[in-house]
Amino acid sequence: MSRAIWKGAISFGLVNIPVSLKTASRSNTLDLDMLDKRDMAPIGYQRINKHTGKTIDNAHIVKGYAYEKDEYVVLSDEDFRQANVEATQTVDIVSFVDAGSIPPYYFETPYYLEPDKRGERGYALLHETMRKTGRAAVALVVLRNRQHLAALLPLGKALVLNTMRFADEVLPVEDLSLPGGKKHAASAREVEMATKLVEDMTEEWAPEQFHDTYREDLLKVIHAKIKAGKTHLLTPASDEPATPSRGAKVIDMMTLLKQSIGKRGKGAEPRRAAADDEAEEDTGDMPRKSARRAPTKAGKAGKAGKAGKATGGKAPGKKDATKKASAAKKPTTKKSPAKTSATKKPAARKAAAKKAVAKKAVAKKASQPAPARKAA
């Protein structure tokens, strides 16, 4: 736990509760030094006397208020304390308000309040009362020579003091150009979809799941440079142009809301269903593709024989091949059993008659003598 940066008391009516103030936050920013790129020497900052140009030791530095140009009133640490001794030693509670009524942009820095000796009972009493009533204590406190507005809030078993901005330090929201009127008003359907998205994204507050990923990525770059021995080399500027800013365009809010809902965990079921539908469509094409397999040698020979008989021994032409291919693609319809048996016998008879005629023609041709060759 951090050390105490301030000791005093909480002034609660006529009750004084001795407490110590401890920091409740820390900074994880990377400690980067300024360097001279010519020789990598660190650059330091010096406090210089503007009249002589010489550096000044801290022992010779005092604080002063310029009431006129080049005319100052010098203030010592004791002057700051004597200005209001009570204010510098107490967290003075001036009122209680509903904890949810304080806008978050008023808050600045959190601190833990820890009870000192003989302050445990009063601390527990104030904590339990604030927890039970749901109130926040509004107080004034002086830290580091400056008075702060502050809010005391119960957190678990502890009391947290959050320094706040004064009202004149917060810029008025009226200075902003904000959307209004029917032109920018959301439709009932858009609000319904947006509400669904909010409910879809709602979860328990778990701050530990968030961390500074950019800091981690930057540390990876630093460690990679150390490992590669590039401890003094500067990375040249990238040749890639900066990403251009997008121009204004009309936004289809409903489409974006629907897509956003589909990307969340509860929208996974529709995505899986859509994937299954696509799979079914793909498998539906499979029988048609497998039906076009390459024919076997026996099948080729049978087809060639039939083609030869149909065309008088000639190879089928391009048109015949195209007709056969288109005929193969056309689905065949089943004929009723009665119709098939009625038309099957005449077709068989015709085929048998054609075979007999072909055999006779072959026999007649074979019996005729071969023509005599002409003399050379």
TrEMBL record:
This is Non-homologous end joining protein Ku. It comes from the Bacteria. Residues 53-181 form the Ku domain. One of its GO terms (molecular function) is double-stranded DNA binding. The lineage of its organism: Bacteria, Pseudomonadati, Pseudomonadota, Betaproteobacteria, Burkholderiales. Gene3D superfamilies: 2.40.290.10. Residues 261-376 are annotated as: Disordered. CDD domains: KU_like (cd00789). One of its GO terms (biological process) is DNA recombination. Residues 364-376 have a biased composition (Low complexity). Pfam families: Ku (PF02735). Homodimer. Interacts with LigD. It comes from Cupriavidus agavae. InterPro entries: DNA_bd_Ku70/Ku80, Prok_Ku, SPOC-like_C_dom_sf. The keyword Transferase does not apply. With LigD forms a non-homologous end joining (NHEJ) DNA repair enzyme, which repairs dsDNA breaks with reduced fidelity. Binds linear dsDNA with 5'- and 3'- overhangs but not closed circular dsDNA nor ssDNA. Recruits and stimulates the ligase activity of LigD.
